[in-house]
């Protein structure tokens, strides 16, 4: 299933309530979100003239952060293996979920190497540095066909 995050709606909603950027501190434990494979940026170019082609670029543009030199996961098995060239915009949660993410739930976009991103929701993700997370509200009703 190709669920889609409606980035514009999520960010506009975030603007009225709180910042869409959350700072996760070193040592924070995060979890890969289930059911997010295949998501992509929707209509992001109309938000503050940002032209992101993928979630990693959206993370950079909207958090104002630069990419880490290597995967920020302390438990990463691919550390020091050109991980910076293999970073993706990963969907993560602050708590472990046994179910696919549901409409209305918060998900965060952070850079992780492809290996950590695809290792499943049971893999340990422990940040070895402070890292900005882009907070989005999941909306699975918007499926692009």
Describe it:
The protein is an alpha+beta fold and 145 residues long. It has one domain. It contains three helices and six strands; from the N terminus they run H-E-E-H-E-E-H-E-E. The chain has helices spanning 7-17, 55-63, 114-117; strands at 21-24, 29-32, 87-93, 106-113, 125-126, 131-137. The chain has a six-stranded antiparallel beta sheet with strand order 1-6-4-3-2-5. The longest helix has 11 residues, at 7-17.
What is shown here, in short?
This protein is an alpha+beta fold. It has one domain (7-137).
Could you outline the blueprint of secondary structure elements for this entry?
Elements: H1 7-17, E1 21-24, E2 29-32, H2 55-63, E3 87-93, E4 106-113, H3 114-117, E5 125-126, E6 131-137
Give me the number of helical elements.
3
Number of strands: 6
User: What are the secondary-structure elements, in order, as H or E?
Assistant: HEEHEEHEE
Helix content: 10-25%
Strand line-up across the major sheet: 1-6-4-3-2-5
Number of domains: 1
* Class by SSE composition: alpha+beta
Considering the chains and any ligands shown, give keywords for the structure.
145 residues; 22% strand; alpha+beta; globular; 17% helix
